[in-house]
């Protein structure tokens, strides 16, 4: 596959890329004819405010999810941050049982040369 020219916004380090012809961000990728292996981790930044009476506590954390999309492999030679304009397939990962939640901050999506996609939510 021929590498495409990348347009980088140096102010925030995000990159616009031209996706492969026929790429559909709404279609679930079929990786090796099996289920897509999406790995997620939660990193706890703080934990406190425990209340035995209301059975609640406060926690600040961020979640990182990653998976491989073979359709995006070989688009870059190094790790890059995709701009929000680049629409790629993302799995529906939901958090449940949140009593109150602050606004979720979505960090730029990262793409590796092998097609590994990394998304961080804070």
UniProtKB/TrEMBL annotation:
Pfam families associated with the record: Neur_chan_LBD
A GO cellular component annotation in the UniProt record: membrane
Origin: domain of life: Eukaryota
Domain Neurotransmitter-gated ion-channel ligand-binding: 20-118
InterPro entries: Neur_chan_lig-bd (IPR006202), Neur_chan_lig-bd_sf (IPR036734)
GO MF annotation terms: extracellular ligand-gated monoatomic ion channel activity
Stated name of the protein: Hypp4069 protein
Gene: Hypp4069
């Amino acid at each position: 596959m021929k590498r495409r020219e990348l347009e980088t916004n140096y102010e925030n380090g995000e990159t616009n890329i031209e996706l492969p012809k026929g790429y559909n961000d709404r279609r679930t990728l079929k990786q090796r004819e099996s289920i897509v292996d999406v790995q997620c981790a939660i990193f706890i930044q703080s934990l406190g405010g425990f209340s035995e009476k209301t059975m609640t506590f406060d926690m600040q954390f961020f979640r990182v999810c990653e998976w491989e999309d073979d359709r995006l492999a070989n688009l870059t030679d190094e790790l890059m941050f995709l701009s929000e304009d680049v629409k790629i397939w993302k799995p529906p990962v939901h958090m449940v049982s949140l009593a109150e939640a602050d606004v979720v901050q979505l960090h730029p999506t990262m793409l590796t040369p092998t097609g590994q996609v990394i998304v961080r939510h804070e």
